[in-house]
Amino acid sequence: MEVCPTQAIRGPYQLDARRCISYLTLEHDGTIPLEMRPLIGTRIFGCDDCQDVCPWNRFAMPTQDPDFQPSPGQAAPDLISLLDLDEAGFRSRYEGTALRRAGRNRFVRNVAVALGNAGDPCAIPALERAAARDPDAHVREHAAWAIAKIRGPVTAGTR
């Protein structure tokens, strides 16, 4: 319960799935609630912190099956370039992977949230393109949020 970044585990045997990062990034098809976005951090596809600390998982054995090994270049991809993925590019890059499950729009929405949380000003041009031209309204909205998060609050006499 203590390790969950969003406090989705409310008590023994009690999960509020609406707060779970795996739910929000994989299953939730709409706007990620504002209060949840900072808690997602730079994750773009699930969380599994609860799996890492689950006492039962101490018995799990890592697999050597090549189908379960990270694909080259996929473990820590350049997030900025992922904002420009169109549907065909997404399908081509993630064919045969679990990432296809989220779909292009959810995936790019999640990338925008991760970039906003990362706070790198180098992401602003790509986020601005996404906010202005992405075909999905949720991607545009999350990209605009990310821009505002990176730029920080505007105070009198600035900008």
If you had to describe this structure to a student in words, what would you say it looks like?
This protein is mainly alpha-helical and 159 residues long. The protein has one domain (9-62, 78-151). Helices cover 43% and strands 3% of the residues. The protein has 8 helices and 2 strands. The protein has helices at residues 21-27, 37-40, 49-53, 79-82, 87-94, 103-118, 124-133, 137-151; strands spanning 9-11, 14-15. A two-stranded antiparallel ribbon has the order 1-2. β1 (9-11) and β2 (14-15) form a beta hairpin. It is globular and about 50 Å long. The relative contact order is 0.13.
Basic shape: globular
Relative helix content: 40-55%
Please tally the helical runs, counting DSSP H or I stretches of 4 or more residues: 8
How many domains in all?
A: 1
Q: What's the rounded overall pLDDT mean?
A: 90
**Structural class assignment:** mainly alpha
Q: What is the strand content?
A: under 5%
**Strand tally:** 2
Topology:
Blueprint: E1 9-11, E2 14-15, H1 21-27, H2 37-40, H3 49-53, H4 79-82, H5 87-94, H6 103-118, H7 124-133, H8 137-151
Antiparallel strand pairs: 1-2
Helix pairs in contact: 6-8, 7-8
Brief descriptors of the model:
159 residues; 43% helix; 2 strands; mainly alpha
